[in-house]
Fold:
Amino acid sequence: MSFVDLLARFTAAVEAGDGGALAALFTEDGVYDDTFYGEFKGPAAIKDMLENHFWRDASAFRWDMREPVATPEIGYANWSFSYASKLPGVEGKRVVFEGMSRFRLSGDRIARYDEVFDMGIALAQTNFAADRIERIVQKAAGRLRDRHANTRHLAD
Structure:
């Protein structure tokens, strides 16, 4: 399967809320690292993430991947992503943002998925109170700092 085909299946599964189809694209120990929800490891957890996190909190997903670039081991694409919120107080509110994805590949399957986007732009569209946005962003900042603990980036 080409990387372009993999991206098409990946986004189609998310848009359809088909956790089984999304999970089938990953290796047995594959990881989906979602900026909002964190890491999910293995097909069962990835299926659960899509069906019981993404689709619990939103619907009407749209995900357009652009400019894919890949080697046999890694692929990148930039994208536009949007959804209709199901969260209390912002039900039906359409949220759109742009980002980039990195796919670590193992044959025709995904060993690890990571993404980068400006969480603040997405959260600002929800009309959440500033203190709620701050808590979410602080949590994400903590995860980033944890990944870089004991590296030269955080050395004094």
Observations:
- The first strand starts at residue 26 and ends at 34.
- The longest helix spans residues 130-147.
